[in-house]
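Long-time lurker, finally posting.

We've been working with IS6 family transposase (Ktedonobacter robiniae) and I want a structural starting point before designing mutants. I don't trust myself to interpret raw outputs, so I'm hoping someone here can both generate the structure tokens and explain anything notable. Sequence follows.
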Amino acid sequence: MRIQSQNPFKWRHFQSEIILLCVRWYVRYALSYRDLEEMMMERGLHVDHTTIYRWVQHYAPELERRCRPYLKTTSDSWRVDETYIKVKKEWVYLYRAVDAQGKTLDFVLSPTRDGEAARRFFLKTLAAPHTAEPRVINVDKNAAYPKAFNELKARGHLPESCELRQVKYLNNPVEQDHRFIKRLAKPGMGFFSFETARRTLQGYETMNRKGQLQGVDKGDAEAQATFVTQLFGVVA
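Top reply, 14 upvotes:
Generated this for you. Predicted structure of IS6 family transposase:
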């Protein structure tokens, strides 16, 4: 495993193992920041919930960035859909896609649900090193998807042979996969800013990839924890 030499925990008052533990637990399980504060107190550690919040905001995006090179390649059948996330009492849109086996392709948080948002999501997913060039993309009846699809195909971003399908039952896997996002976001009762939501969701999506990290089997929490500590150069 390629470990980056720069110390990401420099000047932190708590040990790197504690920081990573709190961040990993928050984005993996349905916990609030106050839950984690109490759990740390049981271990004799007085960590304020606002400190844990700052850790998540700082390290969740870094966790996603470091994990991406180790994601296994997904299949060429895409299932694309969007779900709703509450930010400052307003709904925004989380675009997500899985392959035919339910493996996460990518995600984009957007304040709008339109052709431009769909286009940005397709481009990001196409650029991801772990995604295969799509043979077929299944979407719902949202008119923005065909518009974005045709535009990207005309510009050569999508292969000429790629097919867009709007078959509702084929999108059941991605619609069901949205549930874990809702479950994790519920204890926090919404986000206070778009950037806060974006950073936290990066952690949610990274720690809930289903056996997609190289060397980590689905459901192997111990291997996942070891992988994360090694990724940050921390001795468990």
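Before you design anything, note these points.
Residues 49-67 form the longest helix (19 residues).
The mean pLDDT is 91.
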